[in-house]
Predict the structure of N-carbamoyl-L-amino-acid hydrolase.
Amino acid sequence: MSAVGLLRQIADVGRDRARGGYSRHLATAAESDLRDWFTEQAARRGLDVETDRNGNVWAWWGAPGDDAVVTGSHLDSVPGGGAFDGPLGVASALAAVDDLLARGFAPARPLAVVVFAEEEGGRFGVPCLGSRLLTGSLDADRARGLRDADGVTLAEALTARGGDPSALGPDPERLARVGRFVELHVEQGRALDVPVGIGSTIVAHGRWRLSFTGQGNHAGTTALTDRRDPMIPAAATVLAARRAAARAADARATVGRLVPTPGGTNVIASSVDLWLDVRTPSGEPGPVVEDVLAAAREAAAAEGCTVELVRESLSGAVAFDDALAARMAAAVPGAPLLPTAAGHDAGVLAAHVPAGMLHVRNPTGVSHAPDEHAEDDDVERGVRALADVLAEPAR
Ligand code: GLV
Ligand code: MN
Ligand code: MN
Ligand code: MN
């Protein structure tokens, strides 16, 4: 079946009626439906499905074993996300298996399709949760204690769906089986004007939480001069983030989430949490974050508030494997090499195994939002390239 046909099968799963688009998060009904769909599709193709200790789902063509050729992506989304970021890579992997079956291809080494858990960090805040746990780059105790917006810990959420949070942790034997990893992904900006591009690098990227504390109070009776309103330094910090990014070469800084407590229209907040996402193609995000923090401290002090900074995740810059990129270039002659400022499981794996990415053109240039798109013909071109790359090393 075509990748687009497969995506159509899950078009109604996890729709977010309030925000628009999709909200597909770890340990929710939507995620469970998507896992069931993937398991069924894998079984139809004769693949053997297993879920690893970190909730990543692997579908094996041939017995699981060493030097495997692995492809896949994720099925979770950001809040109110599009239909392609993640699912396109999973659907394309299944479609590439169909393509290889139709070619009569018999893998000489194991081939697997993987679905990584909670790539977006949409529920528990840390991106690439499943691949980071697998590779040991996220501590399992820290992961178990991560909380969602309702205060539910990851351990509680996994237990509630019948999982075993005590099993979370590095999985070196499984990782050692992966000979190479290729992720097909929708392009997430305006950088690609041909159907398919080849991933070159991922920029450095981190997430920080700033928590401002003031004094909760009455919106009507509290004189302006008596207020310690944490929303004031929070607002100044949003503007400081834009200024700090503009001062640094090529950097991007975003505040996409801001939560006042208690969150009443007629209540001066007692505290405000905001999340800062910083990405830097040259150098590390540190100096941009320091710049924002200095402004946050100054604004907090002026309002009689305090501010605390917590780093939630940090990934260094990633360079994908040259040999794998060369194989992709042979599969898609003329495809441009493309850096990306989006995070991916392929970037986490790249520190451990040869990894690479194929990007499929996005005509809207919009991602992490419902307008994200890929044209059917471009997807077909990407799937053919993926099938060629998966087939080549096993011949
Ligand atoms: C994930 O897609 C990210 O780049 O935030
Ligand atoms: Mn994403
Ligand atoms: Mn993605
Ligand atoms: Mn009242």
User: Anything to note?
Assistant: Residues 120, 127, 342-343 surround glyoxylic acid (ligand 1) (CB under 6 Å). Residues 60 and 261 are 47 Å apart (CA to CA). The radius of gyration is 22 Å. Residues 205-315 form a domain with the Alpha-Beta Plaits fold (CATH 3.30.70.360).
